[in-house]
Amino acid sequence: MSTRYAGLIERYRNRLPVDDYTRIISIGEGNTPLIQLQNIPSIIAKDVDIYVKFEGLNPTGSFKDRGMTMAVTKAVENGSQAIICASTGNTSASAAAYAVRAGIKAFVLIPDGKIALGKLAQTLMYDAQIIQINGNFDSGMSLVKEISKHAPVTIVNSINPFRIDGQKTAAFEIIDELGYAPDYHCLPVGNAGNITAYWKGYTEYAQDQGDLKAVVSKRPVMCGYQAAGAAPFISGKMVDNPETIATAIRIGRPQSWDHAWNAQKESAGWFDCFSDEKILEAHKMLSHYEGIFCEPASATSLAGALKDIASGKIAEGSKIVCTLTGNGLKDPDTAINQCKDSHPVTIDATLDAVKKAILDKM
Ligand code: F0G
To answer: Engineered SS bond to 109: which of 117, 132, 140, 295, CB 3.0-4.6 Å?
Structure first.
């Protein structure tokens, strides 16, 4: 029998809405590494196990591929010839790639000038129909919802329930790998689809294992973290002009508002928010101390975990999973800016000059 990894729908087929005849649209998504941080816990001098679920290693470099394999599989099954989404960049890249795979068209609405360079590059390469709007993600989202009433296109934003079904498999993978659910699960929150999906995944696995009381104790506390300039879950109301360097989560009107509050309440979790400076600090820490390069929005999960560990809200001895939602290569501009003080040396191409350059740094 082949041991080839065929994607998350094959792996979790019995927990997903497909049957034997469904044509699966996959690029080998899922099965991402759960990496235990080795240096940061000792730097912060706390006895905690922090794992990162590195979703930046999905085929298009973000967690969106989990949802997109399901959404596009079902769109094709239902006869759709075109999909559409609004996006801060990752959903559009993912939608474009899966549309190509399926042989259908992808239309993507993105905020002009506000998506990271790598995301634009991929979406162009995947040959999507890119529509740049003079507006933000939230206005793109409301246009997409409206247009789908007038044109034969399937929405593949996370308001499409198949997206949530695909993304819930990340929770399955974590439990399958650890053998248990973590005590805390930390996530960046934008449109709030992902926190909704993880909660659904944890709940479904827990339900398999017994009565309601057992279910409660078998699910993690969900911690949702936002950028301070785009933090509707902190203010408790929609934000009109969201702003943050973490463009992936530059969202003021989350579509999964009620679901995310439900995850927070049922898990006795919380929301918090962080300045761009704090987000970038966590972004740099992951690269500098752990060799893990994620995009800025992703590091919001670690920023949150570190704050709550420091204050004792997350107790020592806890097992914590932080989802790193996207790959650092998505946003090279921010990464290079983060390192503007570390100038690479330029020297003559001689043995002596290389020797000197090395000895100077020892
Ligand atoms: N992290 C990254 C890297 C993202 O791209 C997103 C969302 C989030 C976190 C937040 O996830 O919306 O489920 O709460 N990006 C969407 C997009 C909105 O269009 O790519 P969420």
So the answer is: 140
Ligand 1 mean position to 248 CA, how many Å?
Answer: 5
- Write down the pTM of the prediction: 0.96
Q: Choose one of 114, 325, 334 to mutate for the ligand 1 pocket test, by most ligand atoms within 8 angstroms of C-beta.
A: 325
Residue whose CA is at the smallest distance from ligand 1 atom 15: 248
Would you state the pLDDT for residue 210? 65
Token couple for 278: 């704090």
Centre of ligand 1 from the C-alpha of residue 355, in Å: 45
Give the span between the Cα atoms of 123 and 89, in whole angstroms. Answer: 8
Q: What is the pLDDT of residue 214?
A: 53
Q: Which atom of ligand 1 is nearest to the CA of 87?
A: 19
Place 309 in a pLDDT band, splitting at 50, 70 and 90: very high
Is the per-residue pLDDT at 201 higher than 60?
yes
Contact predicate 265/316, CB 8 Å: no
Q: How far is the CA of 10 from the centre of ligand 1 (A)?
A: 24
Which residue pairs, CB below 8 angstroms and at least 24 apart, start in 285-288? 285/40, 286/40, 286/52, 286/324, 287/328
Q: Domains along the chain?
A: 8-61+163-338 (3.40.50.1100), 64-160 (3.40.50.1100)
* Dihedral of the alpha carbons of 260, 49, 323, 246, in degrees to the nearest 10: 100
* Residue 91 Cα: closest atom of ligand 1: 20
Alpha carbon nearest to ligand 1 atom 19, residue = 87
How far is the C-alpha of 200 from the C-alpha of 15, rounded, in Å? 12
| H/E segment holding residue 185 | strand 184-188
Asked if residue 217 has pLDDT above 80, the reply is: no
